[in-house]
Design a protein that fits this description.
317 residues; Neuraminidase; four-stranded antiparallel β-sheet; 24 strands; 5% helix; globular; disordered N terminus
Length: 317
């Protein structure tokens, strides 16, 4: 049933792109009346399906690191490490869910290692997988691009700029790479990046969630801050002036602020544009790379092998 649903969704998108579809009447035509061409109404654009809250998924979920809502369709994708975060075992997968949280394809993409951050751009889902950045067709699940990042230690989150440039954080190396037209370069690096994890392109800025210098167990003596890097000048501007947390997921609230997950603390916080922080939800440790759409927060509970969706619209300032 899930694959049929996807075909229906795809057909609707094709219709919006200008493909003519045939409409069949339910009743038999009147043989005495002249045959008429049925009217076909083609909408100018197809609104993405709204993401709903109040659901949880555990079946088919194994060490979920990232969850992402494709803004063009409302379809949900989640990376499944299915093993150790640094394991090269080929067990990694990406699952695809409907906007209401029901499983659509538990094996949408298979054969990965330890996939983490996800973002889409013009029909391609970009994925960070250890020392590789993969481009995957949203239509077929086929890996269409595979770029090895030389010198990468622990690729983590992914963000995509309006020009298609893919930004990838390397938390252990305290470095951010940029992938453009198949070529990888170092966008920024050094201790001043505070060992970046979460990334988000917001206008002309790259919003960065610092983890802080990790100990062997990924704890920190001093956690990271939330800050912005100008995409043109790479100038750093602090959003939270003081150490903030071990940031993992990072999303826009649509109002100029940000929703941030702290993996070690198990918290979800709201950060205003001026840097004021407010606790939204408290969970067990393991709140990884979140998604936010339609007032709904989707959390990959990484250590509990669960994805769950929460309505937080009323909690936002």
């Amino acid at each position: 049933m899930h694959r049929d649903w996807w075909k229906v969704k795809g057909a609707a998108l094709l219709c919006c792109a200008g493909v003519v579809t045939v409409v069949t009447a339910c009743g038999a035509p009147d043989s005495t009346a002249p045959a008429e061409e049925p009217a076909v109404e083609t909408p100018a654009a197809s609104a993405p399906a709204s993401v709903s809250a109040g659901w949880a998924v555990t079946e088919g979920i194994e060490t979920p690191e990232s969850v992402y809502v494709d803004p063009d369709t409302g379809v949900i994708y989640s990376s499944q490490i299915a093993g150790a975060p640094d394991g090269r075992d080929g067990n990694g997968r990406i699952v695809r869910l409907r906007p209401d949280g029901t499983m659509d394809a538990a094996d949408f993409v298979t054969g990965l290692n330890a996939p983490k951050g996800l973002r889409s751009h013009e029909g391609t889902l970009w994925v960070a997988d250890l020392d590789e950045v993969l481009g995957i067709s949203l239509a077929t699940g086929e890996v269409t691009s595979r770029v090895t990042v030389e010198g990468a230690q622990f690729l983590n989150d992914v963000a995509v700029g309006p020009d298609g440039t893919v930004y990838v954080s390397d938390m252990l190396a305290s470095r951010i790479f940029a992938l453009s037209n198949g070529t990888v370069s170092v966008f920024a690096e050094g201790e001043e990046l505070e060992y970046p994890n979460g990334l988000l392109v917001d206008g002309g800025r790259l919003i960065v969630g610092g983890w802080g210098k990790p100990n062997p167990d990924f704890s920190t003596s001093v956690p990271g801050r939330l800050f912005a890097l100008d995409l043109a000048s790479k100038t750093k501007t602090l959003i939270t002036p003081e150490p903030f947390g071990n940031t993992d997921g990072l999303e826009s609230d649509g109002r100029g602020g940000y929703i941030v997950s702290d993996w070690n603390a198990g918290t979800i916080r709201h950060v205003s544009a001026s840097g004021e922080s407010q606790l939204l939800r408290q969970f067990m440790p393991g709140t990884a790379d979140i998604a936010f759409a339609d007032g709904v927060l989707i959390v990959p509970h990484m250590q509990e092998n669960r994805l769950e969706a929460y309505d937080i619209a009323s909690l936002l300032p």
